[in-house]
Write a structure and sequence with these properties.
With 367 residues, the protein is mainly β. The chain is built from two helices and 31 strands.
Length: 367
């Protein structure tokens, strides 16, 4: 059967609510992302390192983050903010293992995390009326029952990540009060990076940006083996303003440290950074700027800017299995492998019928 015919057949099965079954090769590198096709049907798609599509699940509306379970062959996808659904699928059987809806009066904010032991699911959420932020805590072993809701210590929370010890949640509170994605407080907004003790719910440390940069919104973060946090920001002020868009921070430091961006690169970014990611070594940082068609790289171990790569509408970034290498997805249906040190760039997948969404995830090999 031709590959195009097979994909059409697979889609037909899914649209009639049949659950597919997939066999994955042992040790096979896999990636997943939400996307939309040419008919604006939304999907969760899993593919391998060679660009071969392995699984496809229909979604009711646009999604944002995709996340793998650390000990089971499960992959989760959460709706774009303000969202109402979170789904989980078994990669070996195609079975749906989770279908969650945000609590009344709340929205999912596009990101989630799972504890290292696979027991707890954490989500960023906010009150629909005020954008006050929360971390929802659900017990996966108890059929995803919500057991706790912790303040995120800010408004408009977006991405959240666990530290290496697994006892502290780092939350990017974007600072923007929105209603149906309309921004209501741009003249008074204040974002922050908050470190939340999961046992007590207390704030270990909160870092806000200086008053000069109050219209910078902390949106996406990454964390490396040394618990250094990479911060990607979006500016809500004038396009002509020169402001820092990328920073790092480690718990205990008094303020964030801004990373330099060459002037010839800065104005191409259009004040908007998307995904953040460290390479496997934790020494190389990558930030996407989809509005500027750029992926930027830094050597954070030596605090130096490395390079950039042009990727049209490129936003999703995932670690490669090799150091100094990243997998990048774009809204133009392409997936690349990029080494910012050597400058090598390889196209892994090209499918003009789909638009990859903002985030790309490496899919675990459990099961």
């Amino acid at each position: 059967m031709q590959r195009r015919q097979f994909n059409r057949y697979l889609s037909t099965l899914l649209l009639t609510a049949a659950l597919p079954s997939y066999a994955f090769a042992a040790g096979e590198a896999r990636y997943a992302s939400a996307c939309a096709d040419k008919d604006q049907q939304h999907w969760l798609i899993v593919f391998n390192y060679h660009g071969k599509e392995l699984a496809r699940h229909p979604l009711a509306s646009r999604a944002h983050q995709v996340l793998t379970h650390p000990t089971k062959p499960w992959v989760f996808v959460v709706a774009r903010r303000p969202g109402q659904y979170l789904l989980g699928f078994d990669l070996n059987t195609g079975e749906q293992v989770a279908s969650l809806t945000a609590a009344a009066g709340k929205d999912f904010c596009g990101h989630m995390q799972i504890s290292a032991n696979g027991r707890y699911l954490y989500t960023t959420e906010n009150l629909s009326l005020t954008s006050e932020g929360f971390i929802g805590v659900r017990d996966i072993a108890a059929n995803f029952e919500q057991i706790k809701s912790i303040s995120s210590a800010g408004i408009g929370p977006h991405q959240l990540l666990l530290n290496q010890a697994g006892d502290t949640m780092v939350v990017a509170n974007g600072g923007i009060h929105t209603r149906d994605r309309v921004k209501l407080n741009l003249e008074t907004m204040q974002s922050n990076l908050s470190y939340i003790d999961l046992a007590s719910g207390s704030v270990k440390q909160q870092v806000a940006l200086d008053s000069e940069h109050f219209q910078l919104s902390i949106r996406h973060i990454a964390i490396n083996q040394r618990d250094q946090v990479l911060i990607a920001m979006q500016y809500q002020g004038a396009m002509s303003d020169q402001v820092p868009l990328v920073a790092t921070h480690t718990l205990g430091e008094k303020a964030v440290s801004y990373l330099s961006i060459p002037m010839e690169e800065f104005y191409q970014l259009k004040q908007y950074c998307g995904s953040a990611c460290f390479d496997k070594s934790g020494d190389i940082a990558a930030i996407s700027a989809p509005k500027g068609d750029r992926i930027l790289f830094w050597d954070v171990a030596n605090n130096t800017y490395l390079s950039s790569s042009k990727v049209r509408d490129g936003c999703g970034i995932a670690q490669d299995s090799q150091v100094q290498s990243f997998i990048i997805s774009s809204g133009r249906g392409k997936v690349y492998q990029i080494n910012p040190v050597s400058g090598e760039k390889q196209t892994l997948l090209s499918n003009k019928t789909i638009q990859w969404d903002n985030h790309l995830a490496g899919v675990g090999l459990a099961g």
